[in-house]
């Protein structure tokens, strides 16, 4: 199944950021991609699922 990666940048509102992060963390095991701009990533995002399947 082809999916577009989640993208979070300065134009994405807070509520939408949470939806994108929740979808990333709830995704199936294996490789996934979440693109964060440095500015957006530095505003309190916590990605707990990143690296769990490494």
Explain the overall architecture:
InterPro entries: P-loop_NTPase. The chain has 54 residues and is α+β, with helices and mostly antiparallel strands. It has one domain (1-54). The protein is built from two helices and two strands, in the order E-H-E-H. It has helices spanning 14-26, 38-41; strands at residues 6-8, 34-36. A two-stranded parallel ribbon has the order 1-2.
Q: Spatial order of the strands in the main sheet?
A: 1-2
Order of helices and strands: EHEH
Largest sheet composition: 2 strands, parallel
> How does the overall form come out from the CA principal axes?
globular
Number of helices: 2
Which structural category fits the helices and strands? alpha+beta
Beta-strand percentage range = 5-15%
- Unreliable parts: none
Tally of discrete structural domains: 1
What percentage of residues falls in helices of 4 or more residues? 25-40%
Q: Gyration radius, to the nearest Å?
A: 11 Å
Mean pLDDT level? 78
């Amino acid at each position: 199944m082809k999916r577009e990666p989640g993208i979070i940048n300065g134009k994405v509102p807070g509520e939408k950021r949470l939806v994108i992060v929740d979808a990333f963390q709830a995704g199936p095991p294996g490789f996934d991609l979440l693109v964060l701009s440095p500015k957006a990533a530095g505003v309190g995002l916590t990605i707990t699922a990143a690296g769990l399947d490494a």
